[in-house]
Amino acid sequence: MKSQRILADFFRKTWYIYLFSLIFHLISNLIHVYFPKLLGQFTDKLQLGELTRGMIVDYSLLLLLVGIGHVLFHGTALYLVMYVGRKFEYLVRGRLFRHFTQMSERFYSKNGVGKLLSYFMNDVTAVRESISMGFNSTANAIMLLVAAVTMMIVSGIPYYLIAVSVFPLLLIPLIVVYLGPIIRKRSLEVQEALGRMTETAEEQFGGIRVTKKFAVEDIMERRFGKTVERIRQNQLRLVRVSSFFQALIPFLGTIALITALAFGGYLTVTKHITLGNFVALTLYVRMLMNPLQQIGNVINTIQRSRASLERLNELLSQQSDIVEPENAKSIDLSAAGIRVENLSFAYGASSHQVLKNINLHIRPGKTLGIIGRTGSGKTTLMKLLLRTYDPPTGTIWYGNTDVREMSLESLRSQVAYVPQDGFLFSTTIRENIAFYQRDTEFENVESAARQAQIYNHIVDLPDRFETRLGERGLTLSGGQRQRTSLARGLIKNAPVMILDDSVSAVDAVTEKDIIDSIQKERRGKTTIIIAHRISAIKHADEIIVLDEGVIVQRGTHSELLQEQGFYAELHAIQEEGSQHATATSHS
Ligand SMILES: Nc1ncnc2c1ncn2[C@@H]1O[C@H](COP(=O)(O)OP(=O)(O)OP(=O)(O)O)[C@@H](O)[C@H]1O
Fold first, then answer.
1. How far is the CA of 354 from the centre of ligand 1 (A)?
2. According to the model, what pLDDT value does residue 338 have?
3. ipTM for the complex?
4. What is the top-level taxon of the source organism (predicted)?
5. pLDDT in tens, 541-568
6. Closest CA to 81 of 44, 135, 149
7. Tell me, what's the pLDDT at 383?
8. Is the CB of 354 inside a 6 Å radius of any atom of ligand 1?
9. Which CATH number fits domain 338-586: 3.40.50.150, 3.40.50.300, 3.30.565.10, 3.30.2310.20?
């Protein structure tokens, strides 16, 4: 069955620890069940007037030994099981993380960060509880039950009295079979609602600045309130059935105790059993009550964790839709041209075609400029070149190799992609720039910062390149972030570089400096520049204009200016804008 896979792998690695824990549990319980027996013997001797001072000391020492032995072995068994529980968390979280890093962009666009976090936190913890504390309580209770019943028989308590006193406890499995699936189903609903809440919280905290600027805190609060309310309702549904279940188990224990008292008391008065056996019987039944109550909790926990285990296994069984062939090729991209042939693409079967019949050829070392209205498919084309989404076979070629035949490592290590909203990590500026290769020479970091026109700003900061960014550090402006992210791409000095609207947030003068330095540094290396401003791409060897997924114009800057069309119109508007800006600044 699917839901046993993570556990099967785990038990294969840790079975011997469980075995040791079981052995210690067995020893601790064998010692523990001597307690009522010794007290029973003590009572009988007391009643018959055979008890001497020496015997009182002996019995006290024996009981002390029983107590110490039980605590030592029980404690060790408990420690071992807690240890494997933490090991489980460690291993599964590592496995989940590796799995997440292999998943494609399509997976992340379907699953929000909050949902993924809830797998890490809630689900892993739920399973850990059941394989550590759950195992511990079950092993302890079963062994205690067997040891106690055996000891009662050995002590000469009649079978029928044991059977009647223990009978109510045999109803537990029946209740479990009936209520277990209901608890499991409701707990799956709770886990899913928790996942949705984490997702909503993550999104709302992420967008808190927008919320505040639009002063819509009330709306967001109501929306979040609804999510929390759904959790409350689901949890109440679960609590109703699980509290009933948890209360029923000790109640059965109480019935067992009452039966032992009533029936055992009657048999003692009628001299069928000794007073010592009566004391031992009631102590045994009392001794069994706590572990049985724990079994109730454990079964509850196990039912809940089965739901989490199913979610985890389901997640881990999902495969990335981007798969490398077995004999994936490594290609040297510095000598390979890029060809796009009759490429049409839609994100899903039901969505519209984002790219239609694209044909392109970028010779090695040349620069391609791409311009077009927003939503025209520019970024999508880049995602396909990087194979973050799969293009149809035979549509994208590096040299003579289909991108789908290439090893992803070879492809992505040789392409530097700089997106518009480059994410920066909460670490130093230096580490953000040297992200691709942390141990690179400091001079390279400085040089990349100079090329991206961010150097002067960084050296003005108190800790210069060691300044921390992010949550507890400095926050950069949009343009500064963009240039830091650009430096991160430039330092890679990759054979192919893609700038996806990467200078959109900088002023026109800085943009010119950046483009000049890119032109100089990337001479002889393939570069693709996507921009909304003509000034950023006019030096390109070829420029294409995309409109609704179709290449509607192509040529050099001067060729395109000769044609009637989007490019010339845009040029006129942007020229007019910049002349107006210059005139205003002079006046
Ligand atoms: N992950 C996705 N799933 C489904 N549709 C998508 C996805 N990403 C983009 N699209 C759609 O594909 C179309 C092209 O988007 P794309 O991001 O490629 O445009 P773009 O030209 O880069 O736009 P911009 O200039 O605004 O960055 C849009 O209609 C967009 O809604």
1. 7
2. 92
3. 0.96
4. Bacteria
5. 999 999 998 999 898 988 888 888 888 8
6. 135
7. 92
8. yes
9. 3.40.50.300
* Residue 379 CA to ligand 1 centre (angstroms): 7
Strands of the sheet containing 367-372, edge to edge, are: 415-418, 496-500, 526-530, 367-372, 542-547, 550-555
For residue 381, the ligand 1 atom closest to its alpha carbon is 18
Q: Is the CB of 118 under 6 A from ligand 1?
A: no
CA-proximal residue: ligand 1, atom 7 (nearest): 347
What letter represents residue 212's amino acid?
K
Ligand 1 mutation target, pool 104, 344, 373, 379, most atoms within 8 A of CB: 379
Cut 0.80: pTM above it: no
Which residue CA neighbors atom 19 of ligand 1 most closely?
375
Mean pLDDT of 449-476: 79
At position 321, the amino acid (one-letter code) is D
Residue with the smallest CA separation from ligand 1 atom 17 is: 379
Strands (E), 29-71: none
Domain at 2-317, CATH from 1.20.1560.10, 1.10.3720.10, 3.40.50.970, 2.60.120.260: 1.20.1560.10
- Please provide the distance, in angstroms rounded to a whole number, between the alpha carbons at the two ends of the chain: 78
Q: Convert the pLDDT of each residue in 207-256 to its tens digit.
A: 777 777 776 777 778 878 888 888 888 888 888 888 887 788 778 888 88
| CB 18, CB 84: distance < 8 Å | yes
**Substitution site in 378, 529, 546 for ligand 1 pocket (most atoms within 8 Å of beta carbon):** 378
- For CA atoms 80, 86, 88, 90, give the dihedral sign: negative
